[in-house]
Write a structure and sequence with these properties.
The protein is α/β, with parallel strands linked by helices. The strands form five sheets. It has a six-stranded parallel beta sheet with strand order 3-2-6-7-1-8, sandwiched between helices. It is globular, with a radius of gyration of 27 Å.
C-alpha cells in the first residue's frame, strides 16, 4: 500500500500526528476529534513506510471493544498483524509464555471478580459485610494495588490522597493483607497482580526483557489520561530505555481518579520527554456547534492541572437544534417527560439505538426504565450481563453455528429470523420484563443479520457465523434497537444522536461525596464527558423534589451556571448565550415554552395546529426524495418538527425561514430556495447537493 495514500482524508492536525513517526509523540485529542483515525493511520503509515514491521507494534487501549475496533481499522489499512490489546490482555499472554522460565510450577488461576475472595478474607478478620460493603472493600483494594500501596501503608496513603475509606481504615488494611495472603496460598491472581508480576519478570530477568523488547519496538497507548501507576510500571518495563512511544488522550476526560488513574503522565509527558512532538486535535466532527458550545462552556470555569491543558473544541458539523434545559417539580415528572420526548424523537426519525439517557448513579436507572416501559419504548441498560454471556445468546449462537452446514435457499436475514423463532423471537415483543429482555437480545442478533446482509449482498450463513465468532472473541455486541440507559462513567467512549442528561442537581452532579476541589473538578469532567456524547440533540434536566408533593429544595447543578437560561452567570455572557436564553411563548395560549419541539413550533403541542397539510405533505415528499438521492436518513435534512414548523409559518423569504429553529445557516444555504419554492406552491429546482455534513464529519469521530 502506498504510504502517502494512507494519509488521504486526514485534517492538518491529524496529518501532523500521522507523519510524526519516530520518537516520543503526544496527541492531545478532544472529544470527537478523530483520535482513533489519527493513530491507526499513523501506525499504518509507519508500517508501509518501512519504519517498523507491523508485528513489532503494540497498541494498547483500555477496553476489549476499543482494541477490536482498532484491529479492524488496521486490517482495512493493510496492517493486520499489528497487536492491539488491552493492558491485561497483553500481560496475560506474556506472563503465560514466560511463567515456566521465570517462576515455574503451576500457573495461577486468574480471577475475574474479587468479591468472593474479599468475603472470605473479611470473614477471617471477623467482619460480616453485605454485598455492597464487599464491593466497596474490593474497590478499595483495587485502588491500593493500582497505586502501588501496600497493606501496611494503606492508612497513611489514604490520608495523603484525601480519600475516605468505606470502613475504619485499619479494618481495610487488615482485610487487604488477609486477601493478599489468601491469594498466594490458593495460587490465585487478580488483574492488578497480573500486571505487577508481568512487569516484575521483565525488570528482574534481563533475558526476558531482551525478548520482549525485541518483539515490541513501537508503542501506542490510547486514553493515556486513564493510566494508573501500576499500568505505567508495566509500560516502562516494556519500553526500557527506548522512546518510540505515542500517547493519546484528553486530560479533561479523566474520570477514573477514584480507581487510581491520573492525568499527570499525560500532562507531564513533555517534561518527561523534552524532545517530544505534541499535536492538538480540536476539530470536533461528532457534535453540532450547539453541542460543542455547551461542551466548551462546561470547562470554562475548570481549575487544576487538567484544566491547564483544556482544548477548545471547534465544531465541524452544520448547525443543529439548540440544547434544551428543563426544570421539573419532581423526579417522576422528569422521567415521564423524558420518555415522552424520546418517543417523539423516535417518531421524527431518530433511531432508538441512537438515543441515550445518562445519569450519575445506577440507582437513577429504575425511574427511566419504568417511564420508557410505560411509553412503549424499548431500552437496554448498559453495564448489565455481557451480551454474549447471556444464556439465550449462547443458545442462539450455538444453534446458528449448527445451521451453517445446511442453511437452505432463503436470504440470510430471513433464515436467521426463522432459526431464532423457536428460541423466542416472536413477531411482537412479549409481556413481562424478563421475557422482553430475552426477546430484545434475540432481536439484536436478527438485526445484526440484516445489517450484514445489507452491507454484503449475497452473504451466506457461514459469513454471518464468522461475523458472530469474531464478535464473540472481541466482545463486540450488536447494537440494540432500543434506547440506552447508562451511567456517565459507563458512557465514556460512546456517542449517540440524542443524549438526555438527567438528574442535574447539587448532590448528584457533583455527587454529594465530592468534597475536595479535586473531586469537584472530576465531577465537572464527568459532566463534560456526558455532554460530548451527543451528536445533535442534547437535553439537560433536573427535578426540584424527589417525589410528587415533596419539598422543592434541590438546586440545579453548579455546572449549569452560564449555560442554562437565567443561570447566575448568564448576564455576563448574554451575547454568547442569546439563542439559548430567548424566551419563547405559545402563539395560541401565551404559555412559556421549554420543550424543544414546542419552541420550534412556537405553540404548545396540545394547542390546535393551523398548518397547511398539503404543504407539509409536499415538504415531506421533497425531503424523502432528497434523502434518497444523498443516501442519508431523512431527519438529517430536516426533522418532522422542523417541517411542521415551516408548514405552520409558511415563510416568504430566507430571513423568515432562518428564524425557524432547526434551520441553521448551512441548511438555509443548501435547502432554503427549495423550501421557499414549495411554500410558494412551485416545484423546487434540482440542486444536486451532497450530504449536508460534507460526507466526512461522521467518518472522523473517535
Amino acid at each position: 500500500m502506498d504510504p502517502d495514500r494512507i494519509l488521504d482524508g486526514l485534517d492538518p492536525e491529524q496529518l501532523e500526528a500521522a507523519r510524526a513517526l519516530r520518537g516520543p509523540v503526544c496527541i492531545l485529542a478532544g472529544a470527537g476529534t478523530g483520535k482513533t483515525r489519527a493513530i491507526t493511520h499513523r501506525i499504518a503509515h509507519a508500517v508501509h513506510s518501512g519504519v517498523v514491521a507491523e508485528q513489532q507494534v503494540l497498541a494498547v487501549t483500555f477496553t476489549v471493544r476499543a482494541a477490536g475496533e482498532m484491529r479492524g481499522r488496521l486490517r482495512a489499512l493493510g496492517a493486520p498483524r499489528v497487536q492491539a490489546r488491552t493492558f491485561h490482555s497483553a500481560a496475560v499472554r506474556q506472563l503465560s509464555y514466560f511463567w515456566p522460565q521465570a517462576i515455574g510450577g503451576p500457573m495461577p488461576t486468574l480471577i475475574d471478580s474479587k468479591i468472593q475472595e474479599v468475603a472470605r478474607a473479611a470473614h477471617s478478620c471477623g467482619l460480616q459485610l453485605d454485598r455492597t460493603g464487599l464491593r466497596d472493600l474490593a474497590g478499595e483494594i483495587e485502588w491500593s494495588k493500582a497505586t502501588q500501596v501496600r497493606p501496611a501503608d494503606y492508612e497513611a496513603a489514604i490520608g495523603k490522597a484525601g480519600r475516605t475509606a468505606p470502613m475504619p481504615a485499619h479494618d481495610v488494611a487488615r482485610v487487604y493483607e488477609a486477601y493478599e495472603e489468601q491469594c498466594r496460598d490458593r495460587n490465585l491472581l487478580d488483574f492488578e497482580s497480573l500486571l505487577e508480576l508481568t512487569a516484575g519478570i521483565i525488570i528482574e530477568h534481563p533475558q526476558i526483557a531482551d525478548r520482549v523488547r525485541d518483539q515490541y519496538r513501537y508503542f501506542v497507548v490510547d486514553e493515556f489520561q486513564d493510566v494508573n501507576p501500576l499500568q505505567k510500571l508495566l509500560l516502562d518495563a516494556w519500553l526500557g530505555d527506548r522512546d518510540d512511544l505515542c500517547v493519546v488522550g484528553d486530560p479533561n476526560q479523566t474520570i477514573y481518579s477514584f480507581a487510581g488513574a491520573t492525568p499527570s503522565y499525560l500532562t507531564g509527558f513533555s517534561a518527561a520527554y523534552p524532545h517530544a512532538t505534541v499535536v492538538r486535535l480540536v476539530r470536533d466532527y461528532r457534535s453540532t456547534p450547539q453541542v460543542v458550545r455547551v461542551a466548551n462552556g462546561a470547562l470554562r470555569h475548570a481549575r487544576g492541572p487538567a484544566a491547564e491543558h483544556r482544548l477548545e473544541l471547534v465544531a465541524q458539523r452544520p448547525d443543529g437544534p439548540d440544547p434544551v434545559y428543563t426544570e421539573y417539580d419532581d423526579e417522576p415528572a422528569e422521567a415521564t417527560s423524558v420518555a415522552r420526548r424520546i418517543a417523539a424523537l423516535i417518531d421524527s426519525g431518530v433511531p432508538a439505538r441512537e438515543i441515550a439517557v445518562l445519569f450519575r448513579t445506577n440507582a437513577q436507572s429504575a425511574a427511566y426504565e419504568q417511564a420508557l416501559s410505560d411509553a412503549g419504548v424499548s431500552y437496554t441498560v448498559r453495564g448489565a450481563t455481557r451480551f454474549f454471556e447471556r444464556q439465550e445468546i449462547k443458545q442462539a449462537v450455538h444453534t446458528l453455528r449448527g445451521a451453517r452446514q445446511d442453511p437452505g435457499d432463503d436470504p440470510l436475514a430471513r433464515t436467521v429470523h426463522h432459526i431464532l423463532g423457536p428460541l423466542g423471537l416472536t413477531p411482537q415483543p412479549p409481556e413481562g420484563r424478563q421475557a422482553r429482555e430475552r426477546w430484545e437480545s434475540l432481536a439484536a442478533l436478527a438485526q445484526l443479520a440484516e445489517d450484514v446482509a445489507a452491507a454484503r449482498p449475497g452473504a451466506t450463513m457461514a459469513d454471518f457465523v464468522n461475523e458472530l465468532d469474531a464478535r464473540v472473541a472481541t466482545e463486540h455486541a450488536p447494537e440494540y434497537e432500543g434506547v440506552t440507559l447508562a451511567s456517565l462513567h459507563s458512557a465514556k467512549g460512546l456517542e449517540w444522536d440524542a443524549v438526555f442528561l438527567v438528574g442535574l442537581t447539587e448532590g448528584l452532579m457533583p455527587i454529594v461525596f465530592a468534597e475536595s476541589p479535586e473531586q469537584v473538578e472530576e465531577e465537572r469532567r464527568l459532566f463534560y464527558v456526558g455532554v460530548t456524547r451527543a451528536r445533535e440533540h442534547l437535553s439537560l434536566s433536573w427535578a426540584l423534589a424527589r417525589s410528587p408533593g415533596g419539598r422543592k429544595s434541590r438546586k440545579p447543578s453548579r455546572f449549569l451556571d452560564g449555560l442554562r437560561p437565567a443561570s447566575p452567570s448568564l448576564a455576563s455572557s448574554r451575547r454568547d448565550s442569546r439563542r439559548q436564553s430567548r424566551v419563547v411563548r405559545c402563539r395560541i395560549c401565551g404559555t412559556t415554552l421549554t420543550d424543544a419541539a414546542e419552541r420550534k413550533l412556537a405553540r404548545c403541542l396540545d394547542c390546535p395546529a393551523d398548518y397547511d397539510e398539503a404543504l407539509l405533505e409536499r415538504l415531506k415528499t421533497w425531503r424523502r426524495a432528497s434523502a434518497e438521492k444523498q443516501k442519508v436518513p431523512a431527519y438529517v435534512i430536516f426533522t418532522d418538527s422542523t417541517l411542521q414548523a415551516i408548514a405552520e409559518h409558511v415563510p416568504d423569504d430566507l430571513a423568515q425561514l432562518s428564524r425557524i429553529s432547526g434551520v441553521g445557516a448551512v441548511k438555509l444555504e443548501r435547502y432554503g430556495e427549495a423550501v421557499l419554492a414549495l411554500c410558494a406552491g412551485r416545484e423546487p429546482a434540482d440542486d444536486g447537493e451532497e450530504h449536508p455534513d460534507g460526507g466526512s464529519a461522521q467518518r472522523q469521530t473517535d
